[in-house]
Amino acid sequence: MPVSKAKNEHLYLFIAEVIEKQIMDRVLNIGDKLPSVRSLSTHHDISVSTALQAYYHLEGKGLIESRPQSGYYVRFNPARFPQRPEKSSPSQTIQKKNVDAIISEVYDDWNDPRVVRFSLSVPAPEMLPLAALNKAMLQAIRDL
Predict the structure, then answer these.
(1) What's the pTM?
(2) Domain range 11-80, CATH class
(3) Residue 119 exposure: Cα atoms within 13 Å on the Cβ side
(4) What pLDDT, in 10s, does the model give residues 25-37?
(5) Is the Cβ–Cβ distance between 34 and 77 less than 8 Å?
């Protein structure tokens, strides 16, 4: 099927855009095998080098990948991932806060059992064999 492209556009870019649109519209999914270079060139009535150039262009964009002795496969679909969050814009006004209030907030969180304190480098008490530790401690004290 011959392709019709814009007047000033390179043919390989047009073919790459057609395939990219299929990936974005989820016609082609991650892991799907793309047509071989020869079948793509036959189907669109283009040269093999033009088909290769279109695949190289898509590979450069990270949308497809080449697997040795196997062909080209869909690699990535950015439409499936959420958009990047917008840049935050914190308030430019400075708020004075009482030092005692800040310390109080820290200690309130310190005593919260749902907070994991990684800075201690100690496992949770329920993970320790406390009975065995107590027994070993008592034995060590007796041996003194």
Answers:
(1) 0.52
(2) mainly alpha
(3) 2
(4) 889 988 999 999 9
(5) no
The two tokens of residue 111 are 């005593």
- What burial letters (b/e) apply to 32-54, b meaning 16+ CB within 10 Å? eebbebeebbeebebeeebbebb
What the block records as the tokens of 63 is 């949308």
Residue 52 tokens read as 């290769």
4-27 pLDDT, tens digit per residue, is 555 658 999 999 999 999 988 889
For residue 124, which of 132, 137, 134, 115 has the smallest C-alpha distance?
115
71, 31 Cβ separation under 8 angstroms = no
CA–CA gap between residue 10 and residue 6 (Å, rounded): 8
Q: Could you tell me the residue ranges of all domains in the chain?
A: 11-80
Sole residue written with tokens 């820290």? 106
Q: Which residues contact 92 (CB under 8 A, 6 or more apart)?
A: none
Distance set, CA 22 to CA 8, 28, 82, 131, 140 (Å): 23, 6, 19, 63, 72
Where do runs of H (alpha helix) occur along 25-129?
37-44, 48-60, 99-110
Interatomic CA distance for residues 20 and 123, integer angstroms: 50
